[in-house]
Amino acid sequence: EAVVSTQSTGGSVGFHGDVLTLTKMMDARLKQYLHTHGKEMPCEAIAQMLSTTLYYRRFFPYYTYNMVAGLDKQGKGCVFSYDPVGSYERESYRASGSASAIIQPLLDNQIGFKNQSNVDTSIPMTRERVRDLVRDIFAAASERDIYTGDEVEIAIIDKNGIETVRYPLRSD
Amino acid sequence: GVQAVQTFQHYFKQINLSMASAAVENFLKEDEEVKGFSFENCRRNAFLAKQGAEMPKARKTGTTICGVIFNEGVVLGADTRATGGSIVCDLNCEKIHYIADNVYCCGAGTAADTEFTTKMISSKMELLKLRTGREGRVISALRMLKQYLFRYQGHISAALVLGGVDVNGPALYTVYPHGSTDKLPYVTMGSGSLAAMSVFEDGFKLGMNEEEAKNLVFHAIRAGIVNDLGSGSNVDITVIRKGNVEVFRPYQVVCKKSERAGDYTFPVGTTVVTSSTEMVPFSALTVTDEEVMEIS
């Protein structure tokens, strides 16, 4: 997990060598932007830049599955998810990794309110609810996926900055 | 019926598969009992696999199992996780199987194989006990297991830790899927065997008492649970002494499911009722007409 600015963060899994290299490259480009323009790169711009960076290596790809999350220019939360060669989409929620098949349906239900009726979708999610939800989701995933476990690090991004909190998970 | 059979056999003979023809004949003999494994689906499965169809994965107990001899008997230990690929199938499965009152067996490998193999040998041990009028011996179970597994040339993926106490004293063996065996004072098997063995190599000594032996086995299995991805959940221990067996299931819960932080109860009305039918209980039905039929 890499913190790339005060309003955005990114996550990368897969081949660790490429994870580190990609992170380094993105870090450098973000610093360049900050020094050239005197302000931080907005989240949507970071998202597009990552896409082009990945596609640049179309014929010898970075073996990484990426996500970028943060606040957009309007101050609303955004999540972008990628495939290894740079195809990306803005979504309100996404799970990726070995336990993605377990987690994604749970997100669909709890955040997308799918397969539920008579739900008041106008009530916004509170910070505590989301933090507890993510923690419980990872606890559930580590029950059934052998690769998920030990600890989860959650980064909560709002206009005041990024708060990171860690919770222990099943260590087996 | 008969015509269909003849056409079927004719078809097979046409494309010169005499083995298939014989198999079909055998299959159609209704009074003959099919013993042992049935290989009917082998040709079809090979054909489908060539076409690119994915064969279903057998559930494995990616496992940590171990055993240790102490001054009065044997301590067997196992974890409780069963996996199918990278998903946990069973969070609390039983890997220490009963063979006889004085003989137990831990099983690693394909879950179905360990289950059926140990059940079968347990059954044979009971028959042997009745035939001889004597308490079963660990070495008898060992012989039966190795001769059975060797016959199947390793295709039955069962790696076992067999332990017990009989007239010759405490005994501990490992049995490998191809049929080889080892007689040792401390043994580990399964994907977590390296983690468990490292604990054993550090802490084993001859002539331990029961508490020391249980503690060693617990730490060995725990090492497997924490460090090996294929092992997890709880530690089960079985202590076999002369005339007495103690089963600790679980001996210790290493990883408990964490408390849920949020509330996920769905309020009434989340699932919309589109229509409902009232179910009438059987007793509420009234008999209007009765007719007794004869079976001739």
Q: Describe it for me?
A:
- The complex is a heterodimer of chains A (172) and B (296).
- Chain A is α+β, with helices and mostly antiparallel strands.
- Chain A is 38% helix and 25% strand.
- Chain A has helices at 16-37, 43-56, 100-110, 127-144; strands spanning 2-3, 8-14, 64-71, 77-82, 88-91, 151-158, 161-168.
- Chain A has a five-stranded antiparallel beta sheet with strand order 1-2-3-4-5. Chain A has a two-stranded antiparallel ribbon with strand order 6-7.
- In chain A, β3 (64-71) and β4 (77-82) form a beta hairpin.
- In chain A, α3 (100-110) runs antiparallel to α4 (127-144).
- The mean pLDDT of chain A is 92.
- Chain B has helices spanning 2-14, 18-28, 42-51, 111-132, 138-151, 193-203, 210-227; strands at 60-61, 65-69, 73-78, 82-84, 87-90, 96-100, 103-110, 158-166, 169-175, 181-183, 186-189, 234-241, 244-253.
- The two termini of chain B are 25 Å apart.
- In chain B, the strands form three sheets. In chain B, strands 1, 6, 7, 8, 9 and 10 form a six-stranded antiparallel beta sheet that branches. In chain B, strands 11-2-3-12-13 form a five-stranded antiparallel beta sheet, covered by helices on one side. A two-stranded antiparallel sheet of chain B has the order 4-5.
- Chain B is α+β, with helices and mostly antiparallel strands.
- Classes of the chains: A alpha+beta (172), B alpha+beta (296).
- The interface between A and B is medium-sized, with 23 and 28 residues.
